[in-house]
From TrEMBL:
Residues 6-235 form the ABC transporter domain. It holds the Pfam family ABC_tran. PANTHER family: ABC TRANSPORTER G FAMILY MEMBER 20 ISOFORM X1, ATP-BINDING CASSETTE, SUB-FAMILY H, MEMBER 1. The lineage of its organism: Bacteria, Pseudomonadati, Pseudomonadota, Gammaproteobacteria, Vibrionales. This is ABC transporter ATP-binding protein. GO terms for molecular function: ATP binding; ATP hydrolysis activity.
Length: 309
C-alpha cells in the first residue's frame, strides 16, 4: 500500500493553444492537508478536476487512492468528497433534507443514514437548525452544511475548492479547526486557496502561477529556503524610500505595511542592515529590523509577476 493518497507525474491540461496546467508533479501523503496557493486563473481548480476524474489530462499520469485516473474514476467517486467554492446544495430544502438527499445518493442504508445525519448536524453545529432551509442560512452556516454534506459518507479524501472565500475570518478559523479534526481521523484533504494565512495552516503546499508550480513543500521549509532576508524599516517618507529601494538590484521586493516598509533583500547581501544604512545614509540601524519571513514573502520570491510591486 502506498503512503500517498495522490501521485501525479507530468500532469498537463491544454485547452486549444492555452495551457491551464503544465508538468505538475505531486505527492500528497495520506492523512495530511495539502494546499494549492495562487491567484484566480492560475490552474488550481483545473488541477482539482483532473485529480477527481471530472476532467481528463492532456498529458501525464495520475493515481488517486491507488486508482488510475480517469480510467477508474467511477470507483473513486464513492471514496472522495468534493466541496466547491459556490454553495451547491438545495436552497429550498432544510438542513436535514439536504443531508438526507446526499445520504441517499451515496447509498447509505436508512437506519445508518439517520444516525449519520444526526452525527453530522451535531459535529457542525447544525442540530438546532435541522428544519431551517439552506437558503435562509448565513454564509458560515451554509459553509458548515456544505462540509457536512461533503463528508456525509466519511470519504478517505476530501477536495475543497476555495471553500472559505465567502465567509468572515471567525468562520474561516472555525472551519479550519474542523478540517484538522477530519485530518486527525485519517482523512486526507486537498484545498485550494488564495489566502496566505490559510495556506500557512497546511502541512505542505504548492505555489502556482500561470499553470506552473513555482515552489512546493512545508510552509516553514519554504520560508526558511527563500533566497532573501526580510528587513522592516520604520522611517519617514516610506513611499519615496520604496521607489529608491526598488531601483537596487539587491532588492527583490518592497511593500508598505502601515508605518513600516517590508523589504526583501537578496541573500547575496551578507549583512542587509549594514548594506541599507550604507546605501541610504538617512537610515539609522535602530530603524531597521530583521523580520521572520512570511508565506506572502515566499509567494513574491517564487512568482514572476508580483516581485517588485
Amino acid at each position: 500500500m502506498s503512503d500517498y493518497a495522490i501521485l501525479a507525474s507530468g500532469l498537463t491540461r491544454k485547452f486549444g493553444d492555452f495551457t491551464a496546467v503544465e508538468g505538475l508533479n505531486l505527492k500528497v501523503p495520506k492523512g495530511s492537508i495539502y494546499g494549492f496557493l495562487g491567484p484566480n486563473g492560475c490552474g488550481k481548480s483545473t488541477t482539482l478536476r483532473m485529480l477527481t476524474g471530472l476532467l481528463s489530462s492532456t498529458f501525464g499520469e495520475v493515481e488517486v487512492l491507488g486508482l488510475s485516473i480517469p480510467r477508474q474514476a467511477e470507483l473513486l467517486r464513492r471514496r472522495i468528497g468534493y466541496m466547491t467554492q459556490k454553495f451547491s446544495l438545495y436552497d429550498d430544502l432544510s438542513v436535514f433534507e439536504n443531508l438526507q438527499f446526499i445520504g441517499e445518493i451515496y447509498g447509505i442504508p436508512a437506519r445508518q443514514r439517520r444516525i449519520r445525519i444526526q452525527e453530522q448536524m451535531v459535529t457542525y453545529g447544525l442540530d438546532q437548525r435541522s428544519r431551517q432551509r439552506a437558503g435562509e442560512m448565513s454564509g458560515g452556516q451554509r459553509q458548515r452544511l456544505a462540509l457536512a454534506a461533503a463528508t456525509m459518507h466519511a470519504p478517505d479524501l476530501l477536495f475543497l475548492d476555495e471553500p472559505t472565500s465567502a465567509v468572515d475570518p471567525e468562520n474561516r478559523r472555525e472551519f479550519w479547526e474542523q478540517l484538522f479534526d477530519l485530518c486527525d481521523q485519517g482523512t486526507t484533504i486537498l484545498v485550494t486557496t488564495h489566502y496566505m494565512d490559510e495556506a500557512e495552516r497546511c502541512h505542505a503546499l504548492a505555489i502556482m502561477e500561470s499553470g506552473v508550480v513555482r515552489a512546493d513543500g512545508p510552509p516553514e521549509r519554504l520560508m526558511q529556503e527563500m533566497g532573501v532576508n526580510v528587513v522592516e524599516v520604520e522611517a519617514s517618507q516610506l513611499r519615496q524610500l520604496k521607489e529608491r529601494l526598488l531601483k537596487c538590484a539587491e532588492v527583490r521586493s518592497a511593500a508598505q505595511l502601515g508605518v513600516r516598509l517590508r523589504v526583501l533583500v537578496r541573500k547575496e547581501v551578507a549583512d542587509p542592515i549594514a548594506w541599507m544604512t550604507s546605501r541610504f545614509p538617512e537610515l539609522r540601524p535602530e530603524q531597521l529590523n530583521l523580520a521572520r519571513p512570511s508565506l506572502e514573502d515566499v509567494f513574491v520570491t517564487s512568482t514572476g509577476g508580483e516581485g517588485r510591486q
